[in-house]
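User: My advisor asked me to double-check a structure prediction for Activating signal cointegrator 1 complex subunit 3-like before group meeting. I don't want to rely on an old file, so could you generate it fresh from this sequence?
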Amino acid sequence: LDDVGILSMISQAHEFEQLKVRDEELHELDNLTQECCEIPIRGGSENVHGKVNILLQTLLSRGRVNSFSLVSDLEYVNQNVIRIIRALFEITLHRNNAIMAARFL
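Assistant: Sure, here is a fresh prediction for Activating signal cointegrator 1 complex subunit 3-like from the sequence you gave:
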């Protein structure tokens, strides 16, 4: 898995299915994509997986979010992605896949 695949896999986690893409967020999500996302977004900002991917990359690049709803979703992504990545790290470590475990760190 490359970085695009890892971020895509994480953004499709079941924990994020309850998030919604609101019409008023699309403009800011597009701006965040241009400013904060170095890794291509699969699916774009119009779907939940793309939104989570954008918010995750915004977290990693320490970008700023202005919309209150996006701030709330960003915090939700932050709390859940820590658990997801930790679980993926533990699984790959248990399977003796040191290279993938290091990528999750």
